[in-house]
User: Fold Cell surface mannoprotein MP65 from Cryoendolithus antarcticus.
Amino acid sequence: MKAGLLTLAALSAVAVAQPAHNHRHRHAKKDVAYVTDVEYVTATAQGPVVYVDGNGNPISTSYPAAAAPTVAAAAYSAPAPVAPAPSPETSAYVAPSSAAAPPPPAYTAPAASSAPAYSAPASSSAAAPATSSEASSTGHGITYSPYKGDGNCKSADEVTKDFGGINGYGIVRIYGTDCNQVPNVLSAATAKGMKVFAGIYNINNVAAEAQLIIDAAKSNWGAIDTVSVGNEGVNSGQYTVDQVAGAVSSAKSILSGAGYSGPVVTVDTFVAIIANPGLCNVGDYVAANCHAFFDSSKTADEAGAFVLSQVQRVSAACGGKKTVITESGWPSAGSANGAAVPSPANQQTAVSSIKSAFSSNIFLFTAYNDYWKKDNAGTFGAEHHYGILGDCPSG
Assistant:
């Protein structure tokens, strides 16, 4: 007699691409690998012994004990993960693609690069970078992109009109240098007492983009809080850590030569940073994008606690280095991602939760709805609807 015993072991590995918000916002689905081990067990049972008399009539029957089964089992070994997986607490997380400018007219932006950076809230003891002013000193930040719904550039007057509706934030993050956005945003932001977190989006064009920032600053570096180089380039698989590090080093050299002494960083998803700790040493602090909406187990009221926990994980992975969350938000419309449901009320709840968890070192994503973006399979139809302040005043 033979019996079969089947054992199933399932392992999931995280393949990250935080699919792009086309802002340079990307969120990718994780791949799940399944391994099935079959264990065959063979047991041989000895038949009964019947005793008979001289006429062949049964007198008695005995049943010997069955022999112990022999087991031939294949040893189980877990498959190598598809990609470095974060700890179980984020297994349900599909990292959003970070925000980045659309391919504007005459400008084709590659996928952004990244560098870890986490500035913990007031409770953190991480040391701040030695360089100039930082996002940590300006309270909550917010992101902004100077593009019309059709993807064309906004004028200086339109940017100024948009900034008329942005209040209560000490710093604004932009992603690139196209559309004359650095001088336009600098003018509009400084008029409201805000600093600018500038960005070099194309790491293959560092010299030219750095020069545009230098020209816009006009040696008034006090208005520039930080300069980032790339956005989620490692997470997207477009660049290696070494490529991003080289671009950051080049930018820092060019900018310092023009008198800038502030932080230079690279931005990536928190998942990519934890999986690629080499990113921790790329910038003056660690800069990470983190969206609770892309964890299907999180509700809007859990957004702040989720983001804070990931900041702590990033900082720990980076030896306690200061970390700043450079994107975190919640959509007001779109399809549900499990327990994460987009709605105006949930957006308000999530934003309030995030603000409560962080007194500084965080950029809310984003100021206004971005109708120039495009959805993909991993964005839940929500790409247009992250605007905390609704639609742009300039249209």
Q: What stands out?
A: Confidence is low (pLDDT under 50) at residues 1-19, 22-52, 59-137.
